[in-house]
Write a structure and sequence with these properties.
GO terms for molecular function: electron transfer activity; heme binding; metal ion binding. The protein is mainly α. It is built from five helices and no strands.
């Protein structure tokens, strides 16, 4: 009887001393303007624009800097069109950069995560 009580006490003590697994955070929410202007070319499987933007890396694996993203949105590059201030205001462009950084951080924890538009399309 004494051994049983000691075994139960030891099991409880060990269980209480371990920390619970960290909760997996929810993936970042795709901004409306990003879904409207970017995802059609940059989502997985489309192969029009590079999808490495979600890891903040270029096709060659080099890190993408915020200014590189901002310049490409504003001035375009190859097949990517330029977006005017009236189409993508500075605040929304800031949101694009923030979103891409959040997705890159999230994919380090969940490498299989692939950003996708909301079911039913973009909603403001």
């Amino acid at each position: 009887m004494k051994r049983t009580i000691l075994a139960i006490a030891a099991a409880l003590a060990l269980g209480a001393s371990t920390t619970p697994a960290a909760a997996v955070p929810a993936p970042p929410k795709m901004p409306y303007a990003f879904e409207m202007y970017c995802v059609m070319c940059h989502q997985q499987g489309v192969q029009i624009g590079p999808t490495g933007i979600f890891d903040m890396t270029s096709k060659s694996g080099n890190p993408l800097h915020e200014q590189y993203i901002r310049n490409n949105v504003r001035f375009g590059m190859k097949a990517m069109p330029a977006f005017r201030l009236s189409e993508v205001p500075p605040k929304e462009l800031d949101g694009f950069v923030t979103y891409l950084k959040e997705v890159a951080a999230y994919r380090k924890v969940n490498p299989n995560y692939r950003p996708a538009p909301a079911k039913g399309g973009a909603k403001k």
